[in-house]
């Protein structure tokens, strides 16, 4: 398998995990019209949680990574 296909597979797996974990990142009503600065503060907390998971060699590193990515995506969307 060519190297770029390996990367695409990893991206697809991570994106699938992002979707599975999305409800933990945003409320039931979505994020449209929410405060981007509130999400930035939430992102900082999520990054600290990811760091803690990494330091403690937790099995939740993937979940915490997806949470960070989801919040970053929301911020990107709110700043359009």
Topology:
Elements: H1 3-21, H2 36-55, H3 61-78
Number of domains: 1
Largest sheet: none
The amount of beta strand, in percent, is under 5%
Cα distance spanning the termini: 37 Å
SSE pattern:
HHH
Q: Low-confidence stretches at least 5 residues in length (pLDDT < 50)?
A: none
What is the helical fraction, as a range of percent? over 70%
Q: How many strands appear in the DSSP assignment?
A: 0
Structural class: mainly alpha
Number of helices: 3
Let me know the average pLDDT: 89
Can you tell me the overall shape?
globular
Radius of gyration: 14 Å
Characterization of the model:
The protein is mainly alpha-helical and 80 residues long. The protein has one domain. Helix content is 71%, strand content 0%. It has helices spanning 3-21, 36-55, 61-78.
Question: Could you give a quick summary of the protein structure above?
Answer:
The chain contains 3 helices and no strands. The chain is 71% helix and 0% strand. The N and C termini lie far apart (37 Å).
Pick out its properties.
mainly alpha, 71% helix, 3 helices, 80 residues
